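## Example pair
The file below holds two records. Each record gives the amino-acid sequence first, followed by its C-alpha cell line.
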Amino acid sequence: MTIKQFVKNITATLLTSSALCLALGIVLVIVPGMSAAIICYGLGAAGVVFGIVNIALYLTSQDQRSIIAGAATLILGAIILLRPDIIVSVLPTILGVVLIVNGIAIVQIALETRLELDKWWIILIVGVCNTALGIIAMLNPFTTMEIIMMFVGICLIFAGACDIFSLLLSKKVIDKIKQAAKTGKEEYNEID
C-alpha cells in the first residue's frame, strides 16, 4: 500500500467516526431526556455505517485493519439495532471501553510522533483525558438516566473532537513523510 492510500484510509476512518461521535454527542447534550432505545438505534446505525465504510476501505485498498474494524462495528451495530433493550443496561460500560481504547490509541500516536512533533505532549494529554473519561463511564457514578445521557454526550463530543485534533496535529508528521518520499527515500514509498 502506498503512503497516499494509507493516509486516505486513516483520514476517512477518523473523520467518519469523529463526525458520528460529535453529532450523537451534541444531540445527547441538547436533548438528554430522549429515550435510551432511540440512543441505541442511533449508536447501532452509526456502527453499521462505520462498519460499511471500513469494509469499503478494505475492498478498495486491502487494508486488513479496515476489514477487522469494519466487520466488528458492523456486527456490533446490527446487534444494537436488533436488541436495544440489552444494550441500554451496558451502555456506560460500552462507552467506557470505546473511550479507553480510543484514548490508548491517541497516547500511542503521541508517543510515536514525539520526535517529529514539538507539541506531541498535547496529543498525549488528550489521550490520557479520553482514557480517564472511559474509566469514569465504566464506573457509572450517575444515578439518573438524564445525567448519564448528558455525560455520554459530553464524552462523545470530547472523543470526536480529540480524534479531529489528533488528526490535525499528526498532519505535520504526514507532511514530513510525504516530503521524504518525494525526495527519493524509498522506505517511505511502501508501508508493510
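Second record, same layout:
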Amino acid sequence: MRSYNKSIVNLILSLALLAACPALAAAEEQKPIQPPAAKVRQPKEPGIEPLKETDDVAVIATNFGSIVIRFFPEIAPNHVKNFIALAQSKFYDGTTFHRVIPGFMIQGGSPNSKDDDPANDGIGRGPRMIDAEFSRVNHVRGIVSAARGGDPNSASCQFFIMVAAAPHLDGQYSAFGEVVKGLEVADKIVALPRDKGDNPGKASLVKSVTIQKAGEVLKFPLN
C-alpha cells in the first residue's frame, strides 16, 4: 500500500512540474533583452619620443618672461598641427590668459581677449575645429591641453597650462604638449589679481607665440 501511495504522489508531482514548465518558459521569454555594451574609445598610450634639437617648440612671450612648450605629435598630431599653424599666422599674438585659477591652470588662446571687453573673453574660436585626441597622458603640472566645450570634438584654438595636477581631466581633454622651460612664468600669471570670472585682464598679455627649433631655445642635453 505504501509503495502504491508513493507512486501516486510521484505521479502527481511529475504532472505538476510538467504543467509549470510552459509558465517558466514564458517567464524566461518575457525577460527584457539587454543591449550590447557600448564600445568605448580607449585612450592612446603615451608613447612620447624624447625631445630632439630639431623638433619644433612653441615660445610664448609674456610680460613675465617666456614659456617654452614641446609638442606631443605622437598622441595628438592634429592638435599639434593646429597650434603650430595658428602660431605661425600670429593668431595668438595680443591675446591674454583670460582664465587663471590658482592650484589648477591658466587658460588662453581666445581671439576675443584681444579687444577691451573682458565679458567676451573665452568664447572666441579659431578657423577650424579639431576632433578629440584623448590619451593616457595625465594632466599633471606643466601639461598643455586643448580647451573645449561640451562636445569632445569642439576644440579649436584655446589651450590651458596646468600649474597643478587635475586627475579628473585625464582622458577627457586632449593633452598635446608640455612646458619644458618657464613654468615659473605660469606660476606668476596664475597668481595675478583677477575678477569674479577669474580673468586677470591685460596683465596676462601674450606678446607673441613663435615656433622655433628646440636647439635654438633650449640647452641640450636636457636634464
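Notes on the second record: The first strand starts at residue 56 and ends at 62. Confidence is low (pLDDT under 50) at residues 1-6, 11-41.
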